[in-house]
Amino acid sequence: MIGYVTLGTNDLKKNAPFYDAIAQEMGYERMMDFDTFIAWGNWDVAGVALTQPFDGKAASVGNGTMVALQAKDADQVKRIYDIALANGGSDEGAPGPRGEPDENGNTFYAGYFRDPEGNKLNAFCMTQG
After folding, report:
1. 3-class DSSP state for residue 92?
2. For position 73, which CATH number holds?
3. Sign for the pseudo-dihedral over CA of 55, 57, 59, 65
4. pLDDT per residue over 69-113, tens digit each?
5. Which three-class secondary structure state does DSSP give residue 75?
6. What is the pLDDT of residue 43?
7. How confident is the model at residue 2 (pLDDT cuts 50, 70, 90)?
8. Which residues form the VOC domain (predicted)?
9. pLDDT(129) > 70
């Protein structure tokens, strides 16, 4: 079970507002806030954290690494995607259905974006068929 996911940053103060805005849309706030580390969520669900690397070296983006944020519905996927872009993020794939419906007619729906440091995220939900 995942408790939280940590992403590296080279400028915590500059990049924290990106996550503050997305967390607010999802009904969460900062659950931990230190000089070099901030985590969003609560202790009942998996959270997302932004940290300056503990080894003192520069943070870098993991190739193939992505954090998926579970949205309530397709409208919230779109809002999160728009919030990400409005807060310095960049597009990696506009919100929309991905793949074919499953055996129950549900479709994976997602919008992909990067934070200001280049970390890849998405907001997703399953739409009812």
Report:
1. strand
2. 3.10.180.10
3. negative
4. 999 999 999 999 999 999 999 999 999 999 899 999 999 999 999
5. helix
6. 87
7. confident
8. 1-126
9. no
Q: Are strands 4-8 and 47-51 parallel, antiparallel or unpaired?
A: parallel
Distances from the Cα of 25 to the Cαs of 18, 56, 57, 90, in angstroms? Answer: 11, 32, 32, 18
Whether the Cβ atoms of residue 7 and residue 50 lie closer than 8 Å to each other = yes
Tokens 């200001």 locate to 116
User: Could you tell me if residue 122 is inside a domain?
Assistant: yes
Q: Is residue 58 part of a domain?
A: no
Tokens of 57: 């070296």
Phi, psi of 8 (to 5 degrees): -85, 150
Q: Domain range holding 84?
A: 4-53+65-127
The closest alpha carbon to 17, from 27, 30, 32, 4, belongs to 30
State what percent of residues in the chain have pLDDT above 90: 88
Q: Residue 21's closest CA among 92, 53, 72, 69?
A: 69
Domain count, the chain: 1
Tell me whether residue 83 is in a domain: yes
Cα(67)–Cα(88) distance, rounded to whole angstroms? 17
Q: Is 60 a member of any domain?
A: no
